[in-house]
Amino acid sequence: MTEDLPELRASDADRERVAEILRDAVAEGRLAMEEFDERLEATYRARTYGELEPLTADLPAAAAAPAPLSLHKDTAAVTRWSERIVSGTDGSGAGIGILGGFQRKGRWTIGRRFTAVCLMGGGELDLREANFAGPEVVISCWALMGGVSIVVPPGVEVDVRGLGIMGGFDAQEDGVPGEPGAPRVIVKGLALMGGVAVERKLLKEERRRLKEEKRRLKDERRKELD
């Protein structure tokens, strides 16, 4: 059914089913460990069914049959994001780094309007575990001979509108569609002889799970060869 719905967003459960197929395949000797590592990493990065389907296309169905895909898969994503959008809360609204720096990471709430000012300093905004004070958050960055780093989780839509003068505004994540119910992050402002970078990374839990899976399977393969 994936060929009929290639752009439909995949859920965590869909990624786990594909990961299970890959684990069975490496245990049976169908995949080398190096190829397994590459496919497993691609699995946890995948956003749509179309990205997941090629990862198991050359493996026999008997290895593990994934559950039928459903148009109702998006419900889980909507619920997860709805828990992180906490309307009615002010949240954090500013960060200043002058000849120094500031950092916002871990469990925190970003306000609907956040202003980052960096003068010969730097700032880091990590939104992977953050809550959002509204469905749309505007981050205004003013970097003079300094820089602002913004990390967003998969599923969040990013709209970059900033200007760089003898500096740069990184817009590589601009225009990537968001998951249903996910917040939208607008990044604007000015970078003068400085820079603003927006980077999308896996959630910490998924990265940790990926490392643990690699370690566990390497140990199992080592035991089989002993």
UniProtKB/TrEMBL annotation:
InterPro entries: DUF1707_SHOCT-like (IPR012551). Residues 196-223 form a coiled coil. Residues 8-60 form the DUF1707 domain. Keywords: Coiled coil. Pfam families: DUF1707. It comes from the Bacteria. This is DUF1707 and DUF2154 domain-containing protein. It comes from Streptomyces auratus AGR0001.
